[in-house]
Amino acid sequence: MFENVLIAEDHESTSISVRKTLEDLGVTTPQYAYYCDDALTRIRNGIREGQPYELLITDLFFEEDDRPQQLTDGAALIAAARQAQPGLKVLVFSAEHRAAVIEGLYSDLGINGYVRKARRDAQELKSAIEAIHKNKIHYPVHLRQTGGQKNTYEFSEFDITIITLLSNGMHQKDIPAYLAKKEIRPSSLSSLEKRLNLIKETFEFSKNEQLVAFCKDMGII
Amino acid sequence: MFENVLIAEDHESTSISVRKTLEDLGVTTPQYAYYCDDALTRIRNGIREGQPYELLITDLFFEEDDRPQQLTDGAALIAAARQAQPGLKVLVFSAEHRAAVIEGLYSDLGINGYVRKARRDAQELKSAIEAIHKNKIHYPVHLRQTGGQKNTYEFSEFDITIITLLSNGMHQKDIPAYLAKKEIRPSSLSSLEKRLNLIKETFEFSKNEQLVAFCKDMGII
DNA sequence: TTTTGCCTTACGGTTTCCCGTAAAAATACC
DNA sequence: GGTATTTTTACGGGAAACCGTAAGGCAAAA
Lengths: 221, 221
Prior knowledge:
Two copies of one chain form a homodimer. The first copy, chain A, has helices at 12-24, 36-48, 74-84, 99-109, 121-133, 157-167, 175-181, 189-203, 208-218, and strands spanning 5-8, 31-33, 55-58, 89-94, 113-116. By secondary structure, chain A is α/β, with parallel strands linked by helices. The longest helix of chain A is centred in the last third of the chain and has 15 residues, at 189-203. The A-B interface holds A 10-14, 16-18, 20-21, 34, 63, 65, 95, 117-123, 125, 166-171, 205-210, 212-213, 216-217, 221 and B 10-14, 16-18, 20-21, 34, 63, 65, 95, 117-123, 125, 166-171, 205-210, 212-213, 216-217, 221.
């Protein structure tokens, strides 16, 4: 089993139970940090002292408080940690449930596993750690069968731009001017309408409001 | 210290650390349930067997799964538990941060304490349990000084209904018929428009899309 | 260069939404 | 019971969004 494991988790209660889970697995002295910056410091120290961590277990969301931080969330921590120590294995333990966001962690950050905070999360955490120890990738249970057959629609940069503008309150009629200024093409009102129409047709949506709600749920915007 | 304590919490990992906290306080065998219905059954059994629980520690949100439940959230559990055992002390342990919701728990359900899942939550949990054991009411740290000035706007049931309908793709013009059928009042298109207009004015929003995005972010819908 | 096909833009008609005003209904108050 | 106040509804003009069609632009192939 792993010997050097670091937990980055701001909730004390969660941190405690992750530690307990690790101890059950035979990790004698799991280390832990309540802030991303602290976690990164520990990782760097581990490298310098010739005892690098083998596994980082981290949350995604870290609440701000009176201690200003460089790294504000788990994704930033993972990126910084991998830069300092490319081979470091990473397991994310978070309440995030949006498939798009979770899949992005695998594709963009190359994480080794994800466990969602939910009913039998401690059990899943155990099996995930064991899988990663065997150099496997652990996919969360609730994402395995979706395989990605639905939701094949890929939102383009352009799509996301215009939906974001709408959700920020910009009027459709004012968007062409904005796009032109930013030199984003296409920029015409007609193209915009066509694009929105296509998306809504694809998902069988009838209103922009519905599209915005969907994108929020999916973590696209 | 308490002898009979029940934990209602669907997240295994959180449940584990609450148990550990209780054991640190000298509660030898804390009981726990992963579902509200199970928790209520245990409370009733406790009364019947002459060993009623002294304290219920419960979450607010319980995720649905394949086991259909009568009680779907912590508030319902608290109400049912208090009906079965009026003197039962209740400590809520949840990630909910909206002041209005938390204050509602004190005023509507008469809870004895609230601890928010956050950085030093295990420590706060300890002091809350000790305070409640001394018949005190425990107010969460982060709510003590905020007099509740900001965010005074309260979304009514009606507001949430119509915003939800919009985010489900219903056309504004079709909503009056829906409201009339459901016997929700007011139901006219004009009232609807006025209401939406007032909300958007309050938040200085210009579009429904913006309102939907906001409500998604705030967890209102 | 010309043709072909695709993407973008322009435009007009229709629908929906927005917003102000005023009537009607419901509620509260005397 | 009658009056005042608030809430709800009705209506109409104007703006924005929706939607289909057609014209223009651009790049790759002939």
